[in-house]
Every structure is written in structure tokens, then in C-alpha cells.
């Protein structure tokens, strides 16, 4: 009896599906909504990346352009100037894979050459579809996030996500990316009303039923602030972040994307102990 070779995603994340994985966020930007500017210096970024892995991150997501509401887009050249030194330093030194958080094909290409192993696209391969061919060429798995240019509160948000992901899957498959190297992300905090964010989390099992691993990122986002205190600073939303990710993990999320790694690792261990059968 022969077994099929592991996919690129399985090779990079062998525990995927067996436990909830925590993705550590490393923003090397001056204007991120939560920690803008703190890790813009390459040395500070490298130290933070190493710390997140020490705390239990199973992968590290490096981004060089803020995607917060009202952000100012940056050129691919500026984005690369921010992320490439950090990726080049961290990727060979860490025992976990680095992903590049970008929708730009040129930045994905440069980051993969620098040592990144995964492409995390907040526009689901649809802003610059050639990014799919870049990922395929490098054998890199992709995270496909749902997004919209504008909010339409009248949509059934899960049906909208299904249609969006169908378009993304066509792009990925045409480029040669295998389904088993694709992760779906409902895009909490992007292109949805407050109610739709909550609905997307509530109905996460319907998204999981599409047959792909699911990544959820709610860390420190304003959707949480509206629930308990709209004036709360992003860095003070730890408890709400943990609660949202615990619910997401219990409802089928395979990966949670967070700023605060250690508390989430411990919280997800409890969720997994309760909800996942040993050896699953």
C-alpha cells in the first residue's frame, strides 16, 4: 500500500487539523491599527518574531502594509523594503514557517525568494490574480481571505463568502495550486457590517464544510470594542480576542491569527482538549 505525498501545507504544518494552530502577527509598518511603529525597526521586528515563536506560534505572519480602515496604500517597493530584511533574517533561524501578508504579486515573489513559505492574501487572489502563479511556482500554500470593497448589510454574508471563494478557487486552480494547499479566511474586520462579522463567526461550520482548513483573525479588532467598550484601545482587547478565537476554534477554525500568542496557545489547548478526540 502506498501513501500519497504530503502536500506543501501538510509538510509545513504537520499538526494542522490535529490541534488549533496559533499564527503570530508581526507588523513591520508605521500605521497598523494595534501596534503600528513598534516593530518597524528590523532589529525590533526580529526580536519580536523570535519571541512569538518561543511563546508557541506555529507560524509567523509578516506584513508590510497596514490594511486597517482608512489605511494609506504603499508601493510594492516600500512594502518589500519593510518586510524583506525581516523575513531574510527570521526564516532561516526559526523552526516554524513564515508567511507573507500581501496582495501584491511582486512582493510575494520577493518574499518567497527571501525565505517565506506561505502567501496570505487579504484579497483572496483577486486584487492581483498573478499572485497565484507566483505561489504555485514556489510551491507555496495560500491563505485566501474574503474581502469586499464596500459593505452591503443586506447580504447573506455566508452565501457571499461562498461566491467569493468560488472565484478565488478558480484563480488558484488555474495557476496550479492544489486544493489541499489552500486555507480559507472569512475576513473578520474586512468588508462587512458589525452584524455580519458576528454572523460569519456564528456560521463558521458552514464555511468549514467547504472542505478547506479555516483561519480566523479577530485579534484586537474593533468588532470586539463595539461589544464591550468602543473606547477600548486595541491593545486592551485581549480578553475579547481570546473569547472570539475560542469560539472560532470550537466551531472549526484550524488556525487563529493573533498578536498575543501565549494566552491564545493556552486557551486553544483547553478548547482542543474538550472538543478534539485524541489522535484526530
Automatic annotation (TrEMBL):
<comment type="pathway">
    <text>Cofactor biosynthesis; tetrahydrofolate biosynthesis; 7,8-dihydrofolate from 2-amino-4-hydroxy-6-hydroxymethyl-7,8-dihydropteridine diphosphate and 4-aminobenzoate: step 1/2.</text>
</comment>
<dbReference type="InterPro" id="IPR045031">
    <property type="entry name" value="DHP_synth-like"/>
</dbReference>
<feature type="domain" description="Pterin-binding">
    <location>
        <begin position="20"/>
        <end position="269"/>
    </location>
</feature>
<dbReference type="InterPro" id="IPR006390">
    <property type="entry name" value="DHP_synth_dom"/>
</dbReference>
<protein>
    <recommendedName>
        <fullName>Dihydropteroate synthase</fullName>
        <ecNumber>2.5.1.15</ecNumber>
    </recommendedName>
</protein>
<comment type="similarity">
    <text>Belongs to the DHPS family.</text>
</comment>
<keyword id="KW-0289">Folate biosynthesis</keyword>
<keyword id="KW-0808">Transferase</keyword>
<dbReference type="InterPro" id="IPR000489">
    <property type="entry name" value="Pterin-binding_dom"/>
</dbReference>
<comment type="function">
    <text>Catalyzes the condensation of para-aminobenzoate (pABA) with 6-hydroxymethyl-7,8-dihydropterin diphosphate (DHPt-PP) to form 7,8-dihydropteroate (H2Pte), the immediate precursor of folate derivatives.</text>
</comment>
<dbReference type="Pfam" id="PF00809">
    <property type="entry name" value="Pterin_bind"/>
</dbReference>
<keyword id="KW-0460">Magnesium</keyword>
<keyword id="KW-0479">Metal-binding</keyword>
<dbReference type="InterPro" id="IPR011005">
    <property type="entry name" value="Dihydropteroate_synth-like_sf"/>
</dbReference>
Amino acid at each position: 500500500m502506498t501513501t500519497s505525498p504530503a502536500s506543501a501545507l501538510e509538510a509545513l504544518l504537520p499538526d494542522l487539523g490535529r490541534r488549533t494552530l496559533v499564527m503570530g502577527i508581526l507588523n513591520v509598518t508605521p500605521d497598523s491599527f494595534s501596534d503600528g511603529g513598534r516593530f518597524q525597526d528590523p532589529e525590533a521586528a526580529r526580536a519580536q518574531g523570535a519571541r512569538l515563536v518561543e511563546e508557541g506560534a506555529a507560524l509567523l505572519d509578516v506584513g508590510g502594509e497596514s490594511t486597517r480602515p482608512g489605511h494609506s496604500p504603499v508601493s510594492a517597493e516600500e512594502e518589500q523594503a519593510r518586510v524583506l530584511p525581516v523575513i531574510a533574517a527570521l526564516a532561516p533561524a526559526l523552526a516554524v514557517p513564515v508567511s507573507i501578508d500581501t496582495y501584491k504579486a511582486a512582493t510575494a515573489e520577493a518574499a518567497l525568494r527571501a525565505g517565506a513559505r506561505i502567501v496570505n492574501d487579504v484579497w483572496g487572489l483577486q486584487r492581483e490574480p498573478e499572485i497565484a502563479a507566483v505561489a504555485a511556482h514556489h510551491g507555496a500554500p495560500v491563505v485566501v481571505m474574503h474581502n469586499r470593497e464596500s459593505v452591503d448589510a443586506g447580504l447573506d454574508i455566508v452565501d457571499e463568502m461562498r461566491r467569493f471563494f468560488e472565484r478565488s478557487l478558480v484563480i488558484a486552480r488555474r495557476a496550479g495550486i492544489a486544493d489541499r494547499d489552500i486555507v480559507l479566511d472569512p475576513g473578520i474586520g474586512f468588508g462587512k457590517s458589525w452584524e455580519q462579522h458576528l454572523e460569519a463567526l456564528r456560521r463558521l461550520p458552514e464555511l468549514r464544510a467547504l472542505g478547506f482548513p479555516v483561519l480566523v483573525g479577530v485579534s484586537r479588532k474593533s468588532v470586539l470594542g463595539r461589544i464591550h467598550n468602543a473606547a477600548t484601545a486595541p491593545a486592551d482587547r485581549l480578553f475579547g480576542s481570546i473569547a472570539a478565537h475560542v469560539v472560532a476554534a470550537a466551531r472549526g477554525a484550524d488556525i487563529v491569527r493573533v498578536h498575543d500568542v501565549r494566552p491564545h496557545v493556552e486557551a486553544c489547548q483547553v478548547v482542543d482538549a474538550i472538543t478534539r478526540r485524541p489522535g484526530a
